[in-house]
Specification:
mainly alpha; rod-shaped
Length: 128
């Protein structure tokens, strides 16, 4: 009778150990799946159409052009305008389209941009 109780006790311990191992395996598996899901969310993002350098170059050209054509536009307003221009360009046009623009198409795009990103008053008085 004592050996039967000992066997039942050992069996209960083995069941508990098996349950602990099973639950541990589930926790480890869930952790691995979650880590893989984190990696996948970065891999599934679409590739950027414009490189950082292309965006920086567009922004700089915009800023220099505004300084030349509209020297009285305040710096903060020029920054906002060029941000708007670059955002519009990269959402509406691919780099290939921009590079292939003819002079006439560039002027037309400039007129479109003036509507999308208008220069708003107040202008500072010209310095003499």
């Amino acid at each position: 009778m004592l050996s039967l109780m000992l066997i039942k006790s050992q069996l209960a311990k083995m069941k508990t150990l098996a349950l602990i191992i099973f639950l541990s395996a589930i926790v480890v598996y869930a952790g691995i799946k979650q880590a893989n899901a984190e990696e996948d969310k970065y891999l599934s993002k679409p590739a950027l159409k414009y490189s950082t350098i292309e965006i920086r170059q567009m922004w700089e050209m915009c800023s220099l052009q505004f300084q030349r054509v509209h020297p009285n536009v305040q710096r903060i307003q020029r920054i906002k305008l060029c941000d708007c221009y670059v955002d519009h360009m990269r959402t509406k046009h691919t780099p290939e389209e921009v590079k292939a623009l003819s002079p006439e198409e560039s002027k037309s795009l400039g007129r479109e941009m003036a509507v999308v990103c208008p220069i708003l008053p107040p202008y500072p008085p010209p310095t003499s």
